[in-house]
Amino acid sequence: MKKFLTVTYFVLTILVVLAFSLFTAFNWKTVKPIIGEYFGQAENETPGNEPGKDENLTSAIEELNKLKEQLQEALNDNTTLQETIDNLKEQIKQLETQIEESQGNSLVTDFILNNDNLEIFNLNNKVYFSGVYLEGIYCLDETGFKQVYSQGIGWVNSSNNENYICLGSSSGDGVVIIKPDGSINLVSNTASNMNIYSANENAMLVVLGGNEISSNFQVLDLNTFELTNLNLDSNLFYNNVRLNNSLIVLSGMQEGLYLVDINEKTATLIYETGTNWSVQGGNDTNLYAFINDSNTLLGINTDTKTVTDTYSDEHSYYSVYQDEQGIDFQADDGITIVRFSFETGTFEKQNSFESIIAQVKQGTKTTLTYADFEGVTEIPSNAFEDCTALTSVEIPNTITSIGSYAFNRCTGLTSLTFQENSNLTEINTGAFSSCSNLTTLRIPASVTGIYISTFGGCSNLSEVIFEEGSQLQKLGASAFSGTKITEITLPGNLNTFQGLDNNEYLQTVTFTSDLVLHGNLNTWSTFDDCPALTTIYVPSASLEEFKTVLSEYADLFVGV
Q1: Hey, is 11 helix, strand or coil?
Q2: Is the CB of residue 497 less than 8 Å from the CB of residue 515?
Q3: Does residue 44 sit in the same domain as residue 59?
Q4: Domain shared by 129 and 243, yes or no
Q5: Which residue intervals of 78-177 are DSSP H helices?
Q6: What share of the chain is helix, strand, coil (3-state, %, to 5)?
Q7: Tens-place pLDDT, residues 504-528
Q8: Is 62 exposed, middle or buried (0-12, 13-18, 19+ CB in 10 A)?
Q9: 97 in the same domain as 122
Q10: Across 13-125, where does the E strand assignment appear?
């Protein structure tokens, strides 16, 4: 077996080395040091160019011969390895073929080892190379490695869509297109330092000029390979381009925003005021934009080519939270929130509580006080779910209901406080489940219902106290599952009891009345998975009835 592992190690090593050196359609800057090390070359050394003279390839062949000898030895020693060794023999045969082919193509490794700042593109199963200091364009395909375009230097400003590669020269030699059939066409022989943006399968936006600010915006038609000048005003930032299907939004130092229709080869000024807009994403139809350090927000519909909505007030806004439906903008006061809907393309100012929810979700607000719930009577389901940065929550006496999973998995929560004279009646399913850092809990007397897994998974919760005069009537299954509670006294109004199941540490349970016997009592999993439970206290007058109804736990009942 030891020999077998040795064989496998050598074969895999050679496979990896040859994969790196023979197939180079990847980020060259990342793997160059690896290939250089394999060929025994430092970056400042020049490799040999004569085909068939690569000493390292010769060494690889010698290693293969050694492997074959070791394989034969392994076969002689252990015939049970026959199938595995046959597979390794096949891999060696493939390696020999690759080495034989590579000996006549050492130009590939010589080329990539001697050229920094390579750009690599794939098109129709061919790999194209260009570079900052490289003359022309090179290609690697099934026929070998060769130069396919000999004019120009530094074809690196590029855009690669599914059908074409568009390259611009950094030295002023123009723009070329590489087609799927491998032919290369010069579409412009002027300008340098351009940016090229792929918009769709029919056209691209080409920005010509040597500065970061340019008015020379052109559309390249991928059917005719002609350039059309858009004749836009100057002072447009070509690095502030946003693509959306066949439309492009441009902004810069001049007033307003331009919308470019790539298919129609036209540019339209859709908003005339404001400079230095930041144009952002949305969905396929609606984009949003805002002026840097300003109080104006803008919605753009690229189907109708119109501004859908604007919003501004005395605040400056910046984006803070995005989901699939829209994005929230937070004002400089840290509270006021405006939401942009990706579906409608409109802005909606949220009330202060929605703003607070957004801040907690973003992690910028870590505590909730009574004042934060002003004007709120119900905490919505999932409102603060997964807000792991939230550490403290104060529930005011104006809240009547806490929705399902409202604080689910708030693992940073260590303090939960209910205001005196609480009007809270329901704490719904999973409302505080998996709040693993809660340790104590005092439940208001006004609460009538605690439901399935409301505090389940609160793995450090060790004390639960029901306030005097508790009106609790319903306790759902697994309400305190997975906690460290050792004892609990259930209120006398309890008439629906589904269980205190899955409590590893629970030792003592006290029923202060027998209402559960005449209400809705779960008799089959009431105390399942409570291995430490030793005593269940019940009113003496109902002792025998408890033993009869919950006969599985009859030995645990004690009358008081």
Answers
A1: helix
A2: no
A3: yes
A4: yes
A5: 82-102, 107-113
A6: 20, 35, 45
A7: 999 999 999 999 998 899 888 899 9
A8: exposed
A9: no
A10: 118-123
